[in-house]
Amino acid sequence: MSSLLSDGHELLQQPLRPLKKRVPDIAFAASDASGWDECLPTVAACTIETPMGVVETSDHGDLWREAWKVTARSPDAVTMTALCRSLPLELTRSIILAPTQRGWRLRLLYSLRNLSRERMPWSWAAHPLFACEAGDRIALPESVTAVRVEDSRGNRVGAHGDWIAWPRGVRAESGAYDLSVAEPSTSAFAEKLFSDRLASGDGWCSLERIGIGLRVTVRFAVETTPYLGLWLCYGGWPDGGDGGRQMCVAMEPSTAPEDALARMGEWSRWIEPGATTHWPLDVEIERLTKMQ
What we know:
The chain is mainly β. It has strands at residues 5-6, 9-10, 36-39, 46-50, 53-57, 69-74, 77-83, 89-100, 103-114, 120-122, 125-131, 137-139, 146-152, 163-165, 168-171, 175-178, 189-194, 204-209, 214-220, 227-234, 247-254, 269-271, 276-287.
């Protein structure tokens, strides 16, 4: 998904480099680094053991490199399917657009099918790069009072595996921080964070675009996707090249609290031969009122 417009405003990070065909060996940092991708069967590149043998998985998964096939289309809905390269998995995504009292809703319905005769490991994370500006605000459920650091540029808010306070805290190395407010692109901020397993009813995250008067809320079913990843990038990535840097907030419902499929735990998923599993995700776009 390359563009999402509301009231004339582009809501997705636009390409840092010209769009071009994504060949199998292209690095994610060398791509356009924009839009909305689906990270399957992993987010981070890693080596995994499967019944088929050792498999090398790619950074940000397989599907951002693959051509998706449109299998159904109408004025307010589309269904698309793509195949993974590293594992015999097929992902189908239906997107349905509907108006609401205060804006619009995108309903995304996912189906994952194992095409092989062996059980397969997998993890999934949505990867929508929502554009932002300094001063925009991120809201999480009140139950989220701490997040785990997956990666932090220069360990600014912590090292991998550290738990830090959400949204405000103080670190000896970097001083006070407020993770709920987007910083200017000059801050070179680039952090990947994870929530703990979320409780029922807490499957949501919002980005308030103050300057354009819109709120984007991602809602998801914690029964099937119990974790939330946050990629907060304010001019901090990618390094090098001449394509500029991201200014975005990615709200990423996930099956696991780890980027690498190889990091196994109680969250790990296996799909049986020929089986299909399903999960939903909603994106609500609402106009902010002056009182807010």
